[in-house]
Amino acid sequence: MEKNAAFAARCSMSIPIFFTPQYSEGLRVFDGGAQNNFPVKVLLDKYPDTNFLGLYLGAEIYKHEKKNFLGDMLSIWTESSDPDVLREYKNNIVVIDPDPISTTQFKLSSEEKEFLLESGRLAAIKFLDKTNIIKKTDLNFESRKNDLELLREKLKTKKRKKKFFIKSLCLLVIFLVATYFYGNHLSF
Q1: Cα–Cα distance between 77 and 100 in angstroms, integer?
Q2: Domain limits at 157?
Q3: Bridge partners, 55 (sequence order)
Q4: Phi, psi at residue 19, to the nearest 5°?
Q5: How far apart (Å, rounded) are the C-alpha atoms in residues 98 and 169?
Q6: What angle do CA 95, 111, 53 make, to 5 degrees?
Q7: Residue 33's closest CA among 92, 95, 77?
Q8: Is residue 60 a contact partner of residue 145, using CB atoms and an 8 Å limit?
């Protein structure tokens, strides 16, 4: 079944809970990122001689994060073949690492927006340098990359502090509610 690119792009952003899914032939269509985030193999199985340029949002080097038991069980279902695809088709893929900005982080500061833009610019420069179209040394690449990494660390620190504050606030509320109910329970 052939669909146009605009429909496919809209379906691609149908993250369950966050966006209303599109419908195709009476079925809901969600983002397939959990199981097939970068479906290059699907494209090449159908059109084997296709030249393509992919934009991949994620780390260039796969980092397996330590998880708890439930997280490990979930990764059996969600673990993707992205690292293999990235290695196999590295000459056709621009890897843009948006970390620490997540897919569902919609309200971005000016600093976060600039971080994402510069991440994309530097990824494009690196790709074009690799294909000998431009020279990254002509574009002050290393200095810009260092500045970007400093900004990435600054944004990660802000995110950690915000998470800590929210967790602390939740614990305080739980403590106050428990104290209130415990105090009222003793007075009966």
Answers
A1: 24
A2: 102-188
A3: 94
A4: -130, 150
A5: 28
A6: 20
A7: 77
A8: no
Q: Please report whether residue 107 resides in a domain.
A: yes
Spatial CB neighbours of 53, under 8 Å, sequence gap ≥ 6: 92, 93, 94
Q: Which two tokens stand for residue 39?
A: 């479906």
Q: Please check whether residue 137 lies inside any domain of the structure.
A: yes
Structural domains of the chain, count: 1
Per-residue pLDDT tens over the stretch 130-149: 999 999 999 999 999 999 99
pTM equals 0.76
Q: Please give the structure tokens belonging to residue 25.
A: 């032939």
In a domain, 171, yes or no: yes
Domain assignment present for 55: no
Phi-psi region of 179 (alpha: psi -120 to 50; beta: other; left: phi over 0): alpha
- Judged against a pLDDT cut of 70, whether residue 188 lies above it is answered with no
Interacting residues of 96 by C-beta distance below 8 A, sequence separation 6+: 55, 56, 57, 119, 120, 123
Which residue shows structure tokens 């690119």?
5
Determine the Cα–Cα distance for residues 83 and 117; give it in Å rounded to an integer. Answer: 24
Q: Rounded distance, CA 159 to CA 109, Å? A: 12
Q: Which pairs count as long-range contacts for 142-146, CB under 8 Å and 24+ apart, including other chains?
A: 144/118
Residue type, 89: Y
Q: Distance (Å, rounded) from C-alpha 127 to C-alpha 37?
A: 21
